[in-house]
Amino acid sequence: xxxxxxxxxxxxxxxxxxxxxxxxxxxxxxxxxxxxxxxxxxxxxxxxxxxxxxxxxxxxxxxxxxxxxxxxxxxxxxxxxxxxxxxxxxxxxxxxxxxxxxxxxxxxxxxxxxxxxxxxxxxxxxxxxxxxxxxxxxxxxxx
Length: 143
Known about the structure:
Layout: E1 7-9, E2 12-14, E3 16-21, H1 25-37, E4 40-45, H2 48-56, E5 66-69, H3 78-88, E6 94-98, H4 103-111, E7 116-119, H5 124-140
Parallel strand pairs: 3-4, 3-5, 5-6, 6-7
Antiparallel strand pairs: 1-2
């Protein structure tokens, strides 16, 4: 596969665009800081409704390279958001990150194409590796 070439967003090199959906501001901040340090551009949303609004803002949807989604959120929860993003953006890899692990739910998500199921708190190295793998999997679907 060789070495990845960074895309350029906002005038600076970027390994990819990541959307993090979580109703806990502290979780979003930590994930954003970890991923930005690893070279990713990060968008945040406090729930599925805000995420959909952010992506659909403007004339064209913002293209994300991967989406990290909590399950238990107000308004549009993680399950509903994942269903929406799988229908609207089927080539964007989805990562579930939850503080309430459920083996049956994890199995169901993975069978439906979610690329990873992470349990909070997530080690920063594991988070970066999972996001890199998800972004790379998106890139290979276009070859």
